[in-house]
Design goal:
By secondary structure, the chain is mainly alpha-helical. It has helices at residues 3-11, 14-48, 80-113, 124-137, and strands at 59-62, 65-67, 70-73, 76-78.
């Protein structure tokens, strides 16, 4: 089997397509969570810690080299605030996924706990055949 044909077989499997859809939805979900963290959660936390905007927290390793108003070499910084925002994004996403999986497991437990329906009784044909068998035995 050629490489192209083998790749086509691999790519057209159902689980690969499901994974692609999950990645696309996950990317969109990540944007929503990032906006939630940056626009909803971080401002109140910033107020609680004295009006600090976390995205502005930086540690300058090397100052920018200026020639008048022109920047010759930009500053080298560790963007600690952006890292804190990213960690909070991750924690929220991880918690949301945990809650979703927990809900799915609870639904599966409830489904598994349901008693199996009783097996159906004999059909009319089976009843009729049993009567005929009994009559023939007599």
């Amino acid at each position: 089997m050629g490489l192209v044909a083998e790749f086509k077989t691999f790519a057209m499997r159902g689980n690969v397509m499901d994974m692609a859809v999950g990645i696309i939805i996950g990317g969109a979900f990540g944007k929503i969570i990032s906006s939630f963290v940056n626009d909803v959660i971080m401002p109140p936390i910033g107020i609680l810690v004295g009006g600090v905007d976390f995205s502005d927290i930086r540690l300058t390793l090397k100052a920018a080299v200026m020639n008048g108003a022109e920047i010759v070499n930009p500053a080298v910084t560790l963007n600690i605030g952006n890292f804190v925002n990213t960690v909070i994004d991750f924690l929220i996403i991880a918690f949301a996924i945990f809650m979703m999986i927990k809900a799915m497991n609870n639904m599966k437990k409830k489904e598994d706990a349901k008693p199996a329906p009783p097996p159906p009784g004999p059909s009319n044909e089976e009843k009729l055949l049993a009567e005929i068998r009994d009559l023939l035995k007599k």
